[in-house]
Design goal:
The structure holds 2 protein chains of 2 kinds.
Chain A lengths: L5 E10 L6 E11 L4 E5 L6 H8 L7 E6 L2 E2 L5 H11 E4 L11 H5 L1 H6 L3 H14 L15 H13 L5 E5 L7 H18 L2 E6 L2 H5 L3 E6 L2 E3 L3 H4 L1
Parallel strand pairs in A: 3-8, 3-9, 6-7, 7-8
Antiparallel strand pairs in A: 1-2, 1-4, 4-5, 9-10
Helix pairs in contact in A: 5-6
Chain B lengths: L2 H12 L3 H39 L4 E6 L19 E3 L7 E3 L3 H8 L4 E7 L6 E3 L20 E4 L10 E5 L11 H4 L3 E7 L5 E12 L10 E2 L1 H12 L4 H4 L4 E6 L4 H13 L2 E4 L1 H44 L1 H9 L4 H40 L15 H27 L3 H6 L2
Helix pairs in contact in B: 1-10, 2-8, 2-10, 2-11, 8-9, 8-10, 8-11, 10-11
Classes of the chains: A alpha/beta, B alpha+beta.
């Protein structure tokens, strides 16, 4: 196998100190290959989001290392780190984090604006990705006026605008009804199988988890081999 | 993010909380308005004084007298010296002024930098008259190189053979002229008595009428030709010795820096002469006015510093409100430097809005008030515009306010910049 796009060794993360001290991750190691689709499954509070944030280089682990394409993340300069966050990774957060007062298009092209792309190109690429997610007719609407499913698609469009190699999605269907959730799932798997994007998704929905290539089960900050509860 | 995008985003952000931004802008407005007004006051008054000083004499000349070394009155009478000539002077009883002779003129002319030396002859004409109308007393300004502010006509021509004078506007009606423009170009007769009591008449052309002036003292200005004619007439029959003795001479020099002027002054002092420029003689007035303006400026700056705290407060609230947005942008790869620039640009933009509006209002209102004052209560001081706005100093005020706003914005901007993206996103 070639160099994994993401590899983690012995990740730990501790929140708070003294009596409030909480070990959210207690030594997690994993490898994710290019083009893979991986589900991170666990109960609420088990450390799924914490692990995703560390893998996406949004947060730093208390201990252990993250390697991106074979490079230790600790050795990256601030500029390089920002470039990775901007172009290599796309992140769909647990909440939408849309700017409700701005238009859908403006929300979607924010990563391009941060990257310093000119406004003409921003518009063209923004419209293209909205087209792909069947949202082109909503481009001028205020983001705050959309339905939940539409908002989730806008958020995915924003994560995709810079053609990332890895797409992280933190409970992307958690806030959606089953039918809408299904549509969003299909979009994600289409990106993985037809566009070669590595897909890493957090979920506690076992039916959804079953559609992925691999499943990583996490409990109390540790990876476990099988889905014990389910198996039991 | 490129700088243009940061500017655009910062401008858009500042309008997101309109009421809060408006209140901050109002606070800055007050400070900028006050500072522009006090600055305008300073500019207006110093412009006026400068023009008045120019009306009294040239700024490129010294008035030179012999330094009186008699010291304080308690030092007793001085020993007689046959080579020293004295003139009775108008000061305290018994005081004398040392006179300057041809040798002194040569000595002063030899000082490096001095381009010309002219003795100051005190001319005492008796009257001026136009066309058989009533005769009026006249005094003439003894200093060469004055540039009076003209209400009508043209400046004097020192190279002309024709005797010329400029009359103060107060003479126009008494001499029998209908208005200023009628007086210009007319020939007036000046009467002057010589040493033996005989009256001489000299005809001179009125080339211009001077605005009523603050420092001028109501005398007429004359050109070289008229000055020579009057001096010749006045000196007729006087002993030759008294014609070559003067109380003061005017030493002119090429336009020079303050250091060069001081250097020449030092050399003159070493040679035993006291030299004063016009600024020396009128400078104290300016110093007092500058002091008053400085105090007013200080008040305006205090108002601006208070407004600066308003900016800190406004932006801290914005940073708080936009915590998640900042976290999101950092998660999408925005650098801390860009976040800092975004918020400090917003601060500077708010400062710019407040100061531009404040300065514009001050200029509008100030110009109107100053115009009304110049027509009304201050109409006796012709040429005085109590408020004048120099583009440079207005731009300076705006830049100063923007700098204060920028500094006020650094604390909130720094807070925004150092946020960890995930903490910011988890913020409720
Ligand atoms: N900033 C924080 N401070 C303190 N505790 C935190 C913080 N973030 C997360 N935690 C705790 O860490 C644990 C794991 O959180 P998280 O990774 O969000 O879980 P999950 O996404 O699996 O529900 C939870 O118990 C949560 O309360
Ligand atoms: Mg979570």
């Amino acid at each position: 196998m070639s160099v994994p796009i993401l590899a983690a060794q012995d990740l730990t993360k501790t929140y708070g100190r003294g009596p409030d001290r909480f070990d959210a991750l207690k030594g997690v190691s994993l490898e994710i290959g290019r083009g893979d689709s991986v589900a991170i499954v666990g109960k609420s509070g088990s450390g799924k989001s914490t692990l995703m944030h560390i893998l996406a280089l949004l947060d730093t682990p208390g201990g252990g290392q993250v390697h991106v394409d074979g490079t230790d993340a600790k050795t990256l300069s601030g500029r390089r780190l920002n470039a990775l966050r901007n172009t290599m990774f796309g992140f769909v957060f647990q909440q939408f984090f849309l700017n409700p007062g701005s238009s859908v298009l403006e929300n979607v092209v924010l990563p391009l604006k941060i990257a310093g792309v000119g406004s003409r190109e921003r518009r063209a690429r923004g419209m293209a990705v909205l087209e792909q997610l069947e949202l082109a007719d909503k481009a001028r609407n205020k983001a705050g006026n959309l339905s939940g499913g539409q908002k989730q698609r806008v958020v995915i469009a924003r994560a995709l605008i810079n053609s990332p190699q890895v797409l992280f999605a933190d409970e992307p269907t958690g806030n959606l009804d089953t039918a809408t959730g299904r549509i969003v799932e299909d979009i994600l798997f289409d990106l993985n199988s037809n566009h070669g994007i590595t897909l890493i998704t957090v979920t506690h929905d076992h039916d959804l988890a079953a559609r992925f290539n691999r499943r990583l089960y996490i409990r109390d900050g540790l990876l476990i081999n099988t889905d014990e509860e389910h198996a039991a | 993010m490129n700088p243009l995008e940061i500017l655009k985003t910062a401008m858009a952000n500042s309008f997101r909380s309109k009421l809060r931004t408006l209140l901050t802008i109002l606070a800055i407005f007050v400070g900028a308005f006050t500072l522009t007004i006090t600055n305008g006051l300073g500019t207006g008054i110093s412009n006026y004084i400068d023009s008045q000083i120019a009306a009294v004499g040239s700024s490129n000349s010294f008035t030179v007298a012999k330094t009186d070394t008699s010291g304080n009155p308690a030092s007793g009478p001085k020993k007689y010296d046959a080579t020293t000539k004295v003139l009775a002077a108008g000061g305290r009883p018994g005081s004398t002024q040392l006179a300057l002779g041809q040798a002194d003129l040569d000595a002063i002319g030899a000082i490096p930098g001095i381009t010309g030396v002219t003795p100051v002859t005190r001319l005492s004409p008796d009257f001026i008259q136009w066309n058989d109308h009533d005769k009026y007393q006249l005094s003439v300004s003894p200093l060469a190189g004055a540039q009076p502010q003209l209400a009508a006509g043209a400046p004097l021509d020192d190279s002309a053979a024709q005797p010329q004078l400029i009359l103060p506007s107060s003479y126009v009606a008494p001499l029998g002229f209908a208005d200023n423009s009628q007086a210009v170009g007319q020939d007036a007769t000046i009467g002057i008595t010589d040493a033996t009591g005989i009256m001489h008449s000299i005809t001179a052309r009125i080339t211009g009428i001077e605005q009523s002036a603050l420092l001028g003292g109501g005398g007429a200005f004359i050109n070289k030709s008229l000055s020579t004619a009057l001096a010749d007439a006045q000196g007729t029959g006087a002993p030759a010795a008294s014609k070559s003795v003067w109380a003061n001479v005017t030493a002119s020099f090429a336009p020079s820096s303050a250091a060069q002027v001081n250097d020449m002054k030092g050399k003159l002092a070493a040679a035993g002469y006291t030299a004063q420029t016009l600024d020396d003689r009128i400078g104290t007035v300016k110093t007092v006015i500058n002091g008053i303006i400085g105090v007013l400026d200080a008040f305006a700056v205090i108002a601006l510093v208070a407004a600066g705290f308003g900016i800190v407060n406004t932006l801290l609230m914005s940073v708080q409100e936009r915590t998640r947005e900042i976290g999101l942008m950092k998660a999408m790869g925005m650098g801390s430097g860009s976040v800092f620039a975004l918020f400090s640009t917003e601060a500077a933009f708010i400062g710019f809005l407040g100061s531009a509006i404040g300065s514009a209002a001050a200029i509008g209102l100030g110009t109107a008030v100053s115009g009304a004052l110049a027509r009304g209560p201050l109409s006796d001081l012709e040429g005085l515009h109590i408020l004048a706005f120099a583009p440079g100093s207005v731009a300076g005020v705006i830049l100063l306010v923007m700098a204060i706003a920028f500094i006020a914005g650094t604390l909130p901007a720094w807070r925004a910049a150092r946020q960890n993206p995930i903490d910011a996103l988890r913020y409720e």
